[in-house]
Amino acid sequence: MIHHGDCLTVMRGMPDSSVDLIATDPPYFKVKGEAWDWQWNTPTQFLGWMGELCDEWQRILKPNGSLYVFASPKMAWGVEGEVRKRFTVLNNIRWQKPGGRSNAACKAELRAFFPESETIIFAEQVGADNMAKGEAGYVAKCDELRGFVFEPLRAYLDGERQRAGLTPDQVNVICGFREKGGMAGRHWFNASQFAMPTRKSYETVQSATGLFRREYDDLRREYDDLRRPFTVTADVPYTDVWSFKTVGTYPGKHPCEKPLDLMRHIVQSSSRPGGVVLDCFCGSGSTLEAAASLGRQYIGIDADEKWCEWSRQRLASKANSLFFQEAQ
Q1: What pLDDT band is residue 327 in, cutting at 50, 70 and 90?
Q2: End-to-end CA distance of the chain
Q3: Distance CA 37, CA 303 (A)
Q4: 3-state class of 69 per DSSP?
Q5: Helices then strands (H, E): number in the chain?
Q6: Which of 99, 113, 171, 299 is the most exposed place for a label (fewest CB within 10 A)?
């Protein structure tokens, strides 16, 4: 689905916790020679607007979702600051652009190193995949999110504990956690800081009680499905430094078009088939094509009807190509 309109207006009409992955490239602030990049007079105004975007991203992103935000070298510090106020930043990825504009630079006139990289801020909802760390105001948010994400597993484990007539401390003793309030009592049965049992502990309790009847491998698969997806291999960029060629010049090219292989890498790494991918500055549709080609649902938003139509035609063309390939 592709929406023409102001992204804040469109996102404010979207349901809470409805998106699995947000991968987007907002305006840079006075970098591109386009009116949409010069609509703010000061960095403070621009970052205030970024904060409004972050508020909506936080609301519509699922507790186990991921956020990728592109930012220019000039404003990356401020954009990351706004993201950090609302999310846990996992990486500040450096996208190297081989064969870029630096080849034409007059090195004798440089007064600083030539910027030939771009920042991609990778973040998750606060506490979505970590234990609470105890900072003021942080614990409650972590508990809320972890409790929501892992409630099906917690409810199963605690239900079996009650069926066995055991207290959490008695489960600790069975598992060999002798201290009161040990691992089982603190983490297996509580929404607060929920953690999966190890295979050894779970099977020890199974053997001792004759209950806890689900197989551990089944529980582990469910746990992994509930966690924030993240899948990389040695065959793809797995460090925080990426190297993807920029999109070459062609008639009608979007001034900020991102390479399809880069966007496919993001979608593949941080979403599952069938998940919902949002790009609220979808431009020429690279993110949307990446999502569609990998079996994800997509939502695109752009303020320019021209680019909305461009993206629709791009997606329709790719869909027709896929149809004919499958028919052969």
Answers
A1: very low
A2: 28
A3: 12
A4: strand
A5: 11, 8
A6: 113
Amino acid letter, 269: S
Q: Residues 238, 258: contact at Cβ < 8 Å?
A: no
Helix H segments across the chain? Answer: 7-12, 43-60, 76-84, 138-163, 168-175, 183, 199-209, 216-226, 260-270, 286-293, 305-327
Position 323 confidence tier, pLDDT thresholds 50, 70, 90: very low
Determine the distance from the C-alpha atom of residue 74 to the mean position of all C-alpha atoms in its chain, rounded to a whole number: 23
| Cβ contact 3:301 at 8 Å | yes
Neighbours of 231 (CB within 10 A): 11
pLDDT higher than 80, residue 105 = no
Nearest CA to 50 out of 75, 15, 23, 13 is that of: 75
Tokens matching residue 169 = 């401390």
Pairing of strands 61-71, 297-302: unpaired
Please provide residue 47's backbone torsions phi and psi, each rounded to the nearest 5 degrees: -70, -30
Per-residue pLDDT reduced to its tens digit, 179-230: 655 677 668 888 767 888 899 999 999 999 998 989 999 988 888 887 889 9
Copy the structure tokens of residue 74: 């000039």
Rounded to whole angstroms, the Cα distance separating 233 from 231 reads: 7
**Letter for the amino acid at 113?**
F
Q: Would you say how long the chain is, in residues?
A: 328
